[in-house]
Structure formats: C-alpha cells, structure tokens
Amino acid sequence: MKHLIVGLGNIGDEYRATRHNIGFRMLDAFAEASNVAFEDRRYGMVARCRVKNAEMLLLKPSTFMNLSGNAVRYWMQEEKIMLENLLVLVDDLNLPFGTIRIRKQGSAGGHNGLRHIEQVLCTPNYARVRFGIGNEYTRGGQINFVLGEWTEEEEKLLPERLEVVKEIIPTFCLQGIDRTMNLFNSRK
Question: Does residue 20 have an active-site annotation?
Fold first, then answer.
C-alpha cells in the first residue's frame, strides 16, 4: 500500500524558519528519523521510505504554498496513490501553538495551500495534520506573523511536538485515519 505524505511550505532560505513552513519541518523531522534524504524531482523534493508494509512517498512541493495542489495531483497520478492514502501536514492559525489536530476531511480554513489542493483534487476529503502556530498578532499583522520566525520559547518546544508527528505518520499509514485520530487527537 502506497501513501503520499505532503508537507506544505514555501521554498527558499528566507522561508525556512517561518511558521508557515512547519509542514516542511514536520516532514524533515520524519525523514531524518527514517534515515532518508530528499532529492529534487518534478514539482518538489521527494523521499521514499517504508514502515512495515506501508510504502511512503514524502513530498515537499516546490510550487509555493498557493499552488501546492499541482504537486499533489502530479505525484498522486504518477504513483497511482488513492485519495484515502494522502496525508497533508500544514500550519494552522486557529489552533494554539503546538496543538496538533488530525482531520479526515474539512475546509481549507483560510489556508491557501489547502484551498488549492481542494480545488485541484475537486474535494476537501483528504486527511490532514494541522499544527497550531497560534494567532498572537495585531490586527492586520497576519501575514507578518505567519511568515515570521518562531520565538525563542517556541523553538525550545518544537522538538517535543515534532516527536508526536513522527508517530502520527506511520500510524496513519499502518492503521488508517480513524485510528490515528482516536490515538492522537486526545493528546495534549
């Protein structure tokens, strides 16, 4: 069974440490723990790994956030991956910092990367891991907050939260979305 695990972010050094790139960072943490390296391929950086009988294609799109659906569609078609085997890792302004929520489906919630994936796939019915980045910004400061770097305190707490994500990915692939939600959505 083949799965596509997509971390959303923006390419380029200027975005590397920003809140909006937590999708890339989650995927990087999992790839490092799985001892696999990314290679530059069509529409993004790609790595392959296996956990038991689950084959995973890890994807960090190079299309910029707002066009992420193009990369997702290409790799789903190229690898013949079914919609129920897609998992998208993404930042979420509506969740407090470090909160992790897994959803089977849902709205884009104002996230342009999710919105584009939904448009391209013609459905909001795909699994996603939403990583809370908080919303501690002043009125009109949303873009600067999202594209801003983590605070020193947040950076200290990120490794522990990334450990949880490293458990979520193989659980999704081996046990499915419902079991994954039951196991991890109740965790603090």
Answer: yes
